[in-house]
Write the structure tokens for this entry.
Amino acid sequence: MDLDFFELIYNHPLLKKEDYQEIRKAHTKIEFQQGSMLLEIGKIAREFYIIEKGLFRSFLYDYNCNETTTEFYCSNEILIESLSLFQRTSSKENFQAITDAVVWKIEYETFQQLLQTVEGFREWGRTWATSQIFSLKQRSINVLTINATDRYLDLIKERPQIIKQSPLKYIASYLGITDTSLSRIRKEIATS
Amino acid sequence: MDLDFFELIYNHPLLKKEDYQEIRKAHTKIEFQQGSMLLEIGKIAREFYIIEKGLFRSFLYDYNCNETTTEFYCSNEILIESLSLFQRTSSKENFQAITDAVVWKIEYETFQQLLQTVEGFREWGRTWATSQIFSLKQRSINVLTINATDRYLDLIKERPQIIKQSPLKYIASYLGITDTSLSRIRKEIATS
DNA sequence: AAGTACACTTGCCATATGACAAGAAATGCT
DNA sequence: AGCATTTCTTGTCATATGGCAAGTGTACTT
């Protein structure tokens, strides 16, 4: 059932059946082909996306002009450039479909309206924003204090979809290492 | 002048002289001794702090029980554990005065009230939250893509106060390296 | 002034990761 | 099936950083 998908994403005890009807109506389905861009650096994000199927990544170019994958977005997750969307500034990152994908989008204005009119949605939004900030903090700490092998093992455990669906080079740049090193780490893990 | 300090911190074009009067009245001055704790892991943050003088750091223990300095807070900056303050959850980090310090605090409830009643303050808050998220993202990217020497050089350039006021070991753990390595990096820089 | 604690530096060697290049495997296209 | 492209692996060597221990410097206490 489609409704189950929305209940899963916007999960909050204050949200009722009729709220989900309203939320659902606010969304439009779009499909993306593997490799296509959902948002590019310099453009302004106007929509909030939830992923039904497929895998996306965000990436940018570091000071050495190397592509760095900053995040992965799996099915049943939310994909946005929060700074661009909420601050109406140009995006600092590219967002790309790694596989063919099905997503549901909601316009920024509609999203804001839901936040204002649906209490449970507002509360959901607050919780979600908090978890976003928590993840961002956690990521820096992990990178600083955990070695690449353990970060990779964590990724396997926590987000196996990524391992299955993403080319090794994107995973490597997400972990902050080269694809050569990641290949060796995999070998090491396999033989131990 | 004290007012100048508040105008500097809560800088926003929508805020007027009388707004700053109100903002100022909402704050109370406190002093901290070098080494004393402003907030500890497990406690709930009830206040928002702005630093007039001195240096603070936040830190936690990683999965190896090593102390990791997650952030520094210099004079004219804001110091809070946003997750704890806004979500009423227990703090995930310790906050400690590295030097003797003078800060101004504002109670959470008073802060919320200002957000609701003063439009310029609300707009300032939105901008500030955005810049926080931006910094968090930037930090992960820097750690992933820039080597320790360049991160240290950046720190010297961007936040010289920290270099002057913090012991080397905190700077090292902030950079994600040992104090031994940082000592060598300094030597390397000095002789080149 | 001696003692103590803390901050910083240095030496030695180990380990993790990178750079580059070649080869192998998988995938897509016609 | 055959070719081209991309993805992944492996070898060799270089560099960055860590772990440990000893040594030096500095500041505070008494």
